[in-house]
Design brief:
Elements lengths: L2 H22 L5 H4 L8 E3 L5 E3 L6 E5 L2 E2 L4 E6 L3 E8 L3 E5 L4 E5 L4 E7 L4 E7 L4 E9 L1
Length: 141
């Protein structure tokens, strides 16, 4: 066997080995190396069907007249429901501008907002008596 034939066989063997490794490893491993940080929880209804679980309702905690963790952002689409809770260590009036809805929260208590998102825009939610912003509400058109 001549030297050129041996080199040809060696190259062919390397190509076969590379193809075998690719096939064994599942080919394109792009999907296995990418990560999806979106957790999707499903619940099963009474008829056995699965549907995504409702997202958690944001809770804004007020301590000493300030939102813990800073001003929050709440974003919904027009036609959805604006949902959030406010917990406070003191009595306050919580005002959702744009929708002009104000609710009182008692010291140590919680107040819940469930409002149809029928006005699009960006609105401030604040502790009315202190003029302290606690959240920015964005209703997408």
């Amino acid at each position: 066997m001549e030297r050129s034939q041996r080199i040809g066989l060696l190259v062919a063997a390397v190509v076969v080995a590379v193809v075998a490794v690719i096939l064994i490893s599942g080919g394109d491993d792009e999907d296995s190396s990418s990560t999806d940080n979106t957790a999707q929880t499903t619940t099963t209804g009474g008829n056995g069907s699965s549907k995504p679980a409702a997202p958690a309702v944001p809770t804004i905690t007020i301590k000493d007249g300030k939102p813990v963790g800073g001003e929050q952002e709440i974003e919904v689409d027009k036609g959805d429901t604006i949902q959030f809770k406010v917990k406070s260590d003191e009595d306050h009036e919580i005002h959702m501008h744009g929708y002009d809805i104000a609710k009182d929260v008692e010291a140590g208590g919680t107040v819940t907002y469930n409002v149809p998102a029928d006005i699009d825009g960006i609105f401030e939610i604040e502790i009315e008596d202190l003029k302290e912003p606690i959240a920015e509400l964005r209703v997408n058109p």
